[in-house]
Amino acid sequence: MTQANPYQNNQDLEVLSASPLELVVLLYRGAIEALDAAKRHLGAGEIKERSKKITKICSILEELSSSLDPAQAPQLARQLAELYGYMHRRLCQANIEQTVEPLDEVRALLANLLDGWQQVCNAQADGFALVAGQSECAQYVA
Prior knowledge:
Layout: H1 6-16, H2 20-44, H3 47-66, H4 74-97, H5 101-122, H6 134-141
């Protein structure tokens, strides 16, 4: 009989009770955590683990991209979609070439985006409509 992971239960509750803006912040945090782990795995020569973490980051970027609502903010949605695509390409490059520079670049971009979204979230602004299903996002935050 396996015991439930209390950290996972708390994280699930955080995701299920989050607003759409808070979900975006959680996704960015999850991507940064996975990126930091990918860098550790890269340094340790753990190819399979590194690839799994990079794949997770790419999935998070896909979720973020699909949650954009161009009807609400067309220019922002377009710019974010282009940036997510760029980060995805850099992650693929890092995975193929097994180099840290693209990972560092993507981490810096994610950190800047996280900071911006945290400020929006903290101000309780709801000017950008993002359609992100809570149950769909939960798998990327864990």
